[in-house]
UniProtKB/TrEMBL annotation, chain A:
Pfam families: ABC_tran (PF00005), TOBE_2 (PF08402). Transmembrane segments: none annotated. This is Sn-glycerol-3-phosphate ABC transporter ATP-binding protein UgpC. It comes from Pseudomonas typographi. SUPFAM superfamilies: MOP-like (SSF50331), P-loop containing nucleoside triphosphate hydrolases (SSF52540). One of its GO terms (molecular function) is ATP binding. PANTHER family: MALTODEXTRIN IMPORT ATP-BINDING PROTEIN MSMX, MALTOSE_MALTODEXTRIN IMPORT ATP-BINDING PROTEIN MALK. The gene is ugpC. Residues 4-234 form the ABC transporter domain. PROSITE patterns: ABC_TRANSPORTER_1, ABC_TRANSPORTER_2.
TrEMBL record, chain B:
It is a multi-pass membrane protein. It comes from the Bacteria. It is found in: Cell membrane. This is Sugar ABC transporter permease. The keyword Transmembrane applies. Residues 85-297 form the ABC transmembrane type-1 domain. Belongs to the binding-protein-dependent transport system permease family. Coiled coil: none annotated. The lineage of its organism: Bacteria, Pseudomonadati, Pseudomonadota, Gammaproteobacteria, Pseudomonadales.
From TrEMBL, chain C:
Gene3D superfamilies: MetI-like. Belongs to the binding-protein-dependent transport system permease family. MalFG subfamily. Its main location: membrane. SUPFAM superfamilies: MetI-like. This is Carbohydrate ABC transporter permease. Keywords: Cell membrane, Membrane, Transmembrane, Transmembrane helix, Transport. InterPro entries: BP-dep_ABC_trans_perm, MetI-like, MetI-like_sf. It is a multi-pass membrane protein. PANTHER family: INNER MEMBRANE ABC TRANSPORTER PERMEASE PROTEIN YCJP, MALTOSE TRANSPORT SYSTEM PERMEASE-RELATED. It is found in: Cell membrane. Residues 73-263 form the ABC transmembrane type-1 domain. It holds the Pfam family BPD_transp_1. The chain crosses the membrane at residues 12-35, 77-98, 110-130, 142-164, 241-262.
Length: 367, 309, 277
C-alpha cells in the first residue's frame, strides 16, 4: 500500500513562489506523470515530495502519516535522478547496496536483493564495473536498480530519460512501463516530454506556473482538455486555435463566427455563454480534412508540408493569419502555395471561453 | 486554538524525533574557519593597535606609557618609510608584469611550437615554484650575481667587460629578478594549461574568417585567458606584498634603504631595533595598505574569481 | 624555394628551440646549485666556473656532521604534515557547506577569507611573537603548526571549495535519500569522489609550509627550526662555503621539488581556482 496526499503545498525561494498551492492524491500502484513546460515547478514538486527541499507551507502525507518534516532518508521513497547520480567511486554492486549497507542490513540478504534487482534489469554481468565503464542506458538501469533494491513505497523519477539518445529513450520507456507492471509499484515521474506522459501514465498531472492545470488519464486529457493550456500542450503537432465570437446561443449548442471567415454551429454550451463573447475554437490536425466539392469550408493557404510516409502534416494559414496543421494522406502531392478548403468536424471541435476554460460539449455533458 | 498549539507541539516533536537535518547546516560548518580567521585577524591586530599607541621598546622594559600617535608620526617620517612604500609598489608591479606578460608569451610559445621533450621542458619551467625562497635567493646571491665567482661575472669577463656587483649596484632590480624567477613559473604553468583548454573550433572558425595568428591571439586567446590571469594577479599579489625572505637573505634591505620594502622595514624596527611600538605602528600602516590593495583587487577581479562559467 | 609545408616545419623547429632555451635558462639556477653541491669548495669558487669537475660527496657528509640535517628535516616534515592535516580538517566542513549550501553571503565570505591572506605577516609579527613567548610556545613545533594552519586556511578552503563545486549535487542528494547522515555523506561519498582534488590541495599546503620563511625564521631558533632556518644559518657571511650551501639547499629542496614534479598537473588545476578546467 502506498498512497500519497499533497495538501495545499506551497514553496517559495527568496520571495518567489515556485509552487503555488498543490492538492493532489496519488493512489496505490498508480503511475503518475507530472508534465509541463520547463520552469513550471514539476521538478521542485518532486523534490518536495522526496524531502530534498523544505516545504514553505502545506502538508505531505504518505499512507496517512504526515511526512512533511521527515528527513528524506526516512520517507521510504527512492529517486532516480536525471543525471543518474551514481556514486562514481563505487562498483555497480556497491551503488545498489549502499542504502541497505547504511541501514545495516544482513549481508546475505543485501546480496540477494542486489542480485534480484540486477537480474530484473539485466545488470548481472556488470555488477563489478564502475559507473564510468557503462553506457548511458546501462547507467540509467543501475540508477533504477538502486531504487528497486530499497523496495520503497514510491519510486520518484526526475526526467530520467532526457539524457539518452532518441532510440534508447524509446526502449527505456518500454522497459519502465514493463517494470511498473512487474513491480506493481507506485511511481511518480517528472518529464517535459508529453509523449512520455501519454505513454507511461495512468494519471497525468499537467503543471503550469506552479499550479495544476488538469489531472486525469492521458486520453481524458487529450480528448477533454480543461483549458487552452492543456489543449495546446498535449498532442503533436499541436492543436490549432482560431479566434472568434459567439453569434447565437441555444440550449443544445451555439454558433460561432470565426475571424478566419467561417460560421460554425457547435454542440457546446454553457449558461455563461452569451452572444458576442470572444471565444477560441481548437481543433487537432487529425480532425481537419479537405472539404469535398460544394461543402462549406475554411479557406486557407498551404504553407510547407512535412511528409512522414504514413501521413503528411500540412501547415496552412487561415486568412486571419492563424496557423493550422492538417493531417493528410501520406502520398499527397505538395500543395505549397495552393488555396485549400478545410472541413471542420463540429463534433471534434473544442471551445474555450475568454478565460481560456473549456466550454462543455452539450451532448457529452448530457451523456 | 488549543488543537493548533497541540499540532505545533507535535510537529516540533516529529522534527526532533526524526533528527531532521536542518536545511542549511552551512553556518555551523563554516563557523570554525570563520571564527579562527576572525581570531587570527582581530586578536593580533588588536594587540598591534595597542602596542602602536604606547612606548614599547624591548631594550627599555617598563617604560610603557601612552604616547598617542607618536609612533605613527615617527614611522611615517622615518627615512625608510617612503623608500619602503615605493620599493614595495615597484616590486609588486614589476613582478606582476614580468610574470603575466612572460607567462602569456611563454605559454603561447609552447602552444604554437611542436618539439621533442615537451614534458621535460614543462618540468624545468615549473621547478622554481617549488624552491624555497631562501634557497632561491641564496643561489642567486652566491652563484649567479656574485661579482667574483658568479656566472654573470664569468659571462661579463668572457666578453671583456668589468663584472658588476649586482646586489650592491642594482639591489632592487636584483631582488625583482629573484622574486620574478620564483613566480613566473606559476604564471606559465597556469596559463599554459589554460591555453590548452581553448576551443579549437573557435580558432578554426576565426582562421576561416581570415584572422591571422596575431589577430587570433589578441581577439581570442587573450580574452580566454582573462580568468587565469586574474587568478595569477590575485595569488601573486597576496604573496608579493609580504616578500621578506629574499631580502633578508641577500641585501638586508640595503644599501641604505635601496631594497627595503615595507615588510622588511617593519621587521627591522621590531627585531633589530627592538622598537615594538614603532614596528606596530608600521604594521598597522602595512595592514591598511594591504587592505587598499585587497579592495582594489577584489573590485577588479573578484567577480572573475567567483563566477564560474 | 621552400614550400609552405617546409617553412611551417622550420618555424616550428625554431620555436621549439626557443622553448628549450627559455626552459634551460629558467632551470639553470637549480641545475647549477645541484652541480655545485658536488664540487669541492675550491672548485666551487673557481673562475671561470667549472662545468666539468670531479664530483665529490664530501659536502653532504659534512652537512650531516656539522649541522644535523636530519633534525631540521624532521622538523620540516612534522610541521608541514601536521599543519596540512589540521588545515584540511577545518577547511573541508567549511568548503562543503559553502559549495552545497550556497547563500548570498558565501561569495563574500570566500573573498573575505582570501583577503585575510593579504594581511601582511609583519603587521602581526610582534603580537604573535609576544604571545608565543608568553605561552612558552616560542621555538616549538606547535607554534609553527598553528600559525601555518591559519596562514594557509583561506587558500585551502578556496581550493577545496572549487573541487567540491565540481561534484554534482545530485550524487549527494542520492546519498541523502539512501539514508546517509551528514558525516556518512561526507566520508563515504564526497571525500572519496574528490580525493584527487584533496590530494592536490594537501600538496600545495605542504609546499607552502615547507618553504615558508617568515614565521619560521622569527618564531624558531633551534629546537623547532625547520629547513628554511638551516639554510638561513648558512647564509651568514662567515666564509665562502658555496659548495656546502649548495648541498644543504639541494637537500632542503629535493623532497618538495620531486613531490611537485610528480603532481604538477593536479596542482595547477587546484591552484587555478576553477579558472582552468
Amino acid at each position: 500500500m502506498a498512497t500519497l496526499k499533497l495538501k495545499n503545498l506551497k514553496k517559495g525561494f527568496e520571495g518567489l513562489q515556485i509552487i503555488k498551492g498543490i492538492d493532489l492524491e496519488v493512489l496505490d500502484k498508480e503511475f503518475v506523470v507530472f508534465v509541463g513546460p520547463s520552469g513550471c515547478g514539476k521538478s521542485t514538486l518532486l523534490r518536495l515530495i522526496a524531502g530534498l527541499e523544505d516545504v514553505s507551507s502545506g502538508h505531505i502525507e504518505l499512507d496517512g502519516r504526515d511526512i512533511t518534516e521527515v528527513s528524506p532518508a526516512k520517507r521510504d521513497l527512492a529517486m532516480v535522478f536525471q543525471t543518474y547520480a551514481l556514486y562514481p567511486h563505487m562498483t555497480v554492486r556497491k551503488n545498489m547496496s549502499f542504502a541497505l549497507d547504511l541501514a545495516g542490513g544482513d549481508k546475505a540478504e543485501v546480496q540477494r536483493k542486489v542480485d534480484d534487482a540486477a537480474r530484473i534489469l539485466e545488470l548481472t554481468p556488470l555488477l563489478d564495473r564502475k559507473p564510468r565503464q557503462l553506457s548511458g542506458g546501462q547507467r540509467q538501469r543501475v540508477a533504477i536498480g538502486r531504487a528497486i533494491v530499497r523496495n520503497p513505497k514510491i519510486f520518484l523519477f526526475d526526467e530520467p530519460l532526457s539524457n539518452l539518445d532518441a532510440a534508447l529513450r524509446v526502449q527505456m520507456r518500454l522497459e519502465l512501463a514493463r517494470l511498473h507492471q512487474e513491480l506493481q509499484a507506485t511511481m511518480i515521474y517528472v518529464t517535459h516530454d508529453q509523449v512520455e506522459a501519454m505513454t507511461l501514465a495512468n494519471k497525468v498531472v499537467v503543471l503550469n506556473g506552479g499550479r495544476i492545470e488538469q489531472v486525469g488519464s492521458p486520453l481524458e486529457l487529450y480528448h477533454h482538455p480543461a483549458n487552452l493550456f492543456v489543449a495546446g500542450f498535449l498532442g503533436t503537432p499541436k492543436m490549432a486555435f482560431l479566434k472568434g465570437k459567439v453569434s447565437a446561443v441555444d440550449t443544445g449548442g451555439c454558433e460561432v463566427s470565426l475571424d478566419a471567415g467561417l460560421q460554425l454551429a457547435l454542440p457546446h454550451s454553457s449558461a455563461a455563454l452569451k452572444v458576442g463573447d470572444p471565444v477560441t475554437l481548437g481543433i487537432r490536425p487529425e480532425h481537419l480534412e479537405l472539404a469535398t466539392a460544394g461543402q462549406p469550408g475554411l479557406s486557407v493557404t498551404a504553407d510547407v508540408s512535412e511528409r512522414l510516409g504514413s501521413d503528411t502534416f500540412c501547415h496552412v494559414l487561415a486568412d486571419s493569419g492563424e496557423p493550422l496543421t492538417v493531417r493528410l494522406r501520406g502520398d499527397l502531392n505538395n500543395p505549397y502555395g495552393q488555396r485549400l478548403q478545410l472541413h471542420l468536424g463540429a463534433e471534434h471541435c473544442h471551445l474555450f471561453d475568454a478565460n481560456g476554460d473549456a466550454v462543455s460539449h452539450a451532448l457529452r455533458a448530457a451523456a | 486554538m488549543t488543537t493548533q498549539t497541540a499540532n505545533k507541539a507535535q510537529l516540533r516533536d516529529t522534527r526532533k524525533a526524526v533528527g531532521r537535518r536542518s536545511s542549511n547546516p552551512g553556518w555551523f560548518l563554516v563557523s570554525p574557519s570563520v571564527l579562527l580567521l576572525l581570531l587570527w585577524m582581530i586578536v593580533p591586530l588588536g594587540m598591534t593597535l595597542y602596542f602602536s599607541l604606547i612606548r614599547f621598546n624591548l631594550l627599555y622594559p617598563g617604560e610603557n606609557e601612552f604616547v598617542g600617535l607618536e609612533n605613527f608620526s615617527f614611522f611615517l617620517t622615518d627615512s625608510g618609510f617612503l623608500p619602503g612604500i615605493w620599493n614595495t609598489v615597484v616590486l609588486v608591479l614589476s613582478v606582476l608584469i614580468i610574470s603575466v606578460v612572460g607567462g602569456v608569451l611563454v605559454a603561447a610559445l609552447l602552444e604554437a611550437s611542436d618539439f621533442i621533450g615537451r614534458g621535460i621542458v614543462r618540468v624545468m619551467l615549473i621547478s622554481p615554484f617549488f624552491i624555497m625562497p631562501t634557497v632561491g635567493a641564496l643561489v642567486f646571491k652566491n652563484l649567479i650575481f656574485h661579482p667574483v665567482s658568479g656566472i654573470l661575472a664569468a659571462l661579463w669577463r668572457a666578453f671583456g667587460a668589468q663584472p658588476i656587483d649586482w646586489l650592491a649596484n642594482y639591489p632592487l632590480a636584483s631582488i625583482i629578478i629573484i622574486v620574478a624567477w620564483q613566480w613566473l613559473p606559476f604564471a606559465i604553468l597556469l596559463l599554459m594549461t589554460a591555453i590548452q583548454s581553448q576551443d579549437l573550433e573557435q580558432k578554426e572558425a576565426a582562421r576561416l574568417d581570415g584572422a591571422g595568428p596575431g589577430a587570433i591571439f589578441w581577439h581570442l586567446t587573450l580574452p580566454h585567458l582573462s580568468r587565469p590571469i586574474a587568478v595569477v594577479v590575485m595569488i601573486e599579489t597576496i604573496f608579493l606584498l609580504s616578500v621578506f625572505a629574499e631580502i633578508f637573505t641577500t641585501t638586508n634591505g640595503g644599501p641604505g634603504f635601496a631594497s627595503t620594502n615595507l615588510a622588511y622595514l617593519i621587521y627591522n624596527q621590531a627585531l633589530v631595533q627592538f622598537d615594538v611600538g614603532m614596528a606596530s605602528a608600521g604594521g598597522l600602516i602595512a595592514v591598511v595598505i594591504a587592505n587598499i590593495a585587497a579592495v582594489i583587487l577584489v573590485r577588479m577581479i573578484g567577480k572573475n574569481l567567483t563566477d564560474k562559467g | 624555394m621552400m614550400t609552405l609545408k617546409q617553412s611551417r616545419r622550420l618555424q616550428s623547429v625554431a620555436l621549439g628551440g626557443l622553448s628549450w632555451l627559455i626552459a634551460l635558462l629558467i632551470f639553470f639556477p637549480i641545475l647549477w646549485m645541484v652541480l655545485t653541491s658536488f664540487k669541492t669548495e675550491i672548485d666551487a669558487f673557481a673562475t671561470p666556473p667549472l662545468f666539468f669537475f670531479h664530483p665529490t660527496l664530501e659536502n653532504y657528509i659534512h652537512i650531516q656532521e656539522r649541522s644535523d640535517y636530519l633534525h631540521f628535516a624532521w622538523n620540516s616534515i612534522a610541521i608541514s604534515f601536521s599543519a596540512t592535516i589540521l588545515c584540511l580538517l577545518i577547511a573541508v566542513p567549511a568548503a562543503y557547506s559553502m559549495a552545497f549550501y550556497e547563500t548570498k553571503r558565501t561569495k563574500q565570505t570566500l573573498l573575505w577569507m582570501l583577503s585575510t591572506k593579504m594581511l601582511p605577516p609583519v603587521g602581526v609579527l610582534m603580537p604573535i611573537y609576544l604571545l608565543a613567548k608568553g605561552t612558552g610556545l616560542l621555538d616549538t613545533k606547535l607554534a609553527l603548526i598553528i600559525i601555518y594552519t591559519l596562514v594557509n586556511l583561506p587558500i585551502v578552503v578556496w581550493m577545496v571549495y572549487t573541487y567540491f563545486k565540481d561534484v554534482p549535487r545530485d550524487i549527494l542528494e542520492a546519498a541523502r535519500l539512501d539514508g546517509a547522515t551528514l558525516l556518512q555523506e561526507m566520508l563515504r561519498v564526497l571525500l572519496p569522489i574528490s580525493k584527487g582534488g584533496l590530494a592536490s590541495t594537501a600538496l600545495l599546503s605542504l609546499i607552502l609550509c615547507w618553504n615558508e620563511a617568515f614565521w619560521s625564521l622569527n618564531l624558531s631558533s633551534s629546537q623547532a627550526a625547520p629547513l628554511t632556518a638551516l639554510i638561513a644559518s648558512y647564509s651568514s657571511p662567515e666564509g665562502l662555503f658555496w659548495a656546502k650551501l649548495s648541498a644543504v639547499s639541494t637537500l632542503a629542496c629535493a623532497p618538495i621539488l620531486i613531490f611537485g614534479w610528480i603532481s604538477q598537473k593536479q596542482l595547477v588545476r587546484g591552484l587555478s581556482f576553477g579558472a582552468v578546467k
